[in-house]
Amino acid sequence: MRELHRIEGSGCGIGSITLSKVMVDHGSEPWPVRILGPHRAVLGTGMAIDERHVLTCAHVVGAAGGTEPLDGVPTWPVGVDLVGQPGAPTVSARVVPDCWVPPTEDGRGDVALLELAVPLAHGPFAPLRRVRPWGRRVLVQGFPETLEHGAYVRARLAGPSGAGRERVQMDSLATGPQIIQGFSGAAVVDELTGHVVGMVVSTYGDEAVAVGPAGGLSWMIPVEAILNHLPSLRDRVPGEPSIDLDFLVPDHSPVDLSVARRLVAFFDRQLPANVLVMVTVHPGSGTAAAVRRVAVHSSREFRPSTGPDDGPDDGPGAPPVGSIDLAVDAAGRSTGDITQRIADWAGVFDGTTTGPAAGPPPRALIINNIDEADEPEKLLSEVVLPLVDQAPARDLRMLLTFRGESVMLRLALLASRVASLQGTEAAARLAYQAVAPRVAGVPPVPDRATRLRVRLTALRAAIAGDAVDDTLADRLASTERATDRALREAESVRQRLVALHRSWSDLRGRLAGYLAMAVHHGFSEEPALSPIHRKAHKLLLDGPCDLVMAEAAVRRYSEAVVDRIEAERRGGDR
Fold first, then answer.
1. What predicted TM-score, i.e. pTM, was given to this entire model?
2. What single DSSP character describes residue 380?
3. Per the record, which residues fall in region Disordered (predicted)?
4. Do residue 211 and residue 305 come from a single domain?
């Protein structure tokens, strides 16, 4: 049993937190099951979600039919072995007619809900939860053919994968067992909280994947995607979906397709921007409809299909599945509510952090109708700005919408970003001063903060002097875009300069390390080694160096030292 800490309060670097304890006892869960075919052959795994129903993969159930045609919902029964309840008898089960979703060629579906012939005596049942489907450590229990009592595998959620982007890649840890055939239908359990965050659907080596031998890779279908295929289960899954239900209101407003395409490019990382500010004017505008469409169509849970046998609607303004992590509507909500909403998604409230360093922020986020929040200024200062400050360094995508022009709120946001730009450029200049004397060809540091401060001052003066005209909104939007571009460029240059200095320092350390090895063995001044060291040392320390040439020289010296040590060892062995 492991003692954990649950965060009670807010996180993501915003607000305050306190700690309480959560206990997770893996291996004692009563809800894992094995799915059995004829002659009690183990076909796969599943999980009991209530006293009458088991969730598993469609291809697992299909395998029980042998040579029977699979043109529709399977009619044959399967056995359900309650491995989590020793001594319990095997129960017969059949597919619930409206809960059969066979796998598609592009990697979607593969879900089946079974109804037990006899209800289970007691729970608890699999605790399904909607969570961010990446960056989590998970535990999976499966039943490979050679292990009757099953095996546990630890893995890490890597991120969306496959043509349909519905599935999430899992990377098994380098040591220990791997997820192989026999794990299909298994619950993917968050290692810290015990929540079920998805279900194993295929492994690297399955016929469904059509690739080579097992290599530690597997795929899960996250809970949100399961709920898309089986919406009748939504009432059994606590918590909120990744998009607020306000985005799902019946919408008959015409979508501004140019705005929708721009948003798709933004969240698909084709548009070079981190923070996008939009004014929607009113709920029925084409811009507001485009924001709602993009949010809904990115959702694994609510993305519509064009028909029962078709894939997701990939028409204009339809972003890739999962390209938006979280969409929050701020209208009528408190700052604390929105803070908690973001922290819940990040994993702060479900025990995935153990201290003030809260879970990662969403990589792609919509905060809608900021100016209609209960306290817009507080929301901006306590939630929006801390997230915006992280956007360039972490390459986040944030769409911030305002119902009205909200000039004062946007000026406050712009002023903060211009100040961040000033700090980023200053940090880049320090990095330049450290690396330019040592490495040749380093990029220059851009200097745009001064000009943007002048533009910001002019905007403030226009408002203070009551010189507001029809061009003010355009000038403000133009300055917002220019500041975002400047921040991206300055941060990119800063990171490049830091990386170049790190590479130079690593080479210097490697050279010093191999020299120490040579000194230890007593041949650092030998004619065969000394000139090689001098050349590498000269390249690194006599003025700005070509890193490629310096790396080759250091590598040559390291190889020469290793060869000399090996030669001495072979001579000693004789």
1. 0.83
2. I
3. 298-324
4. no
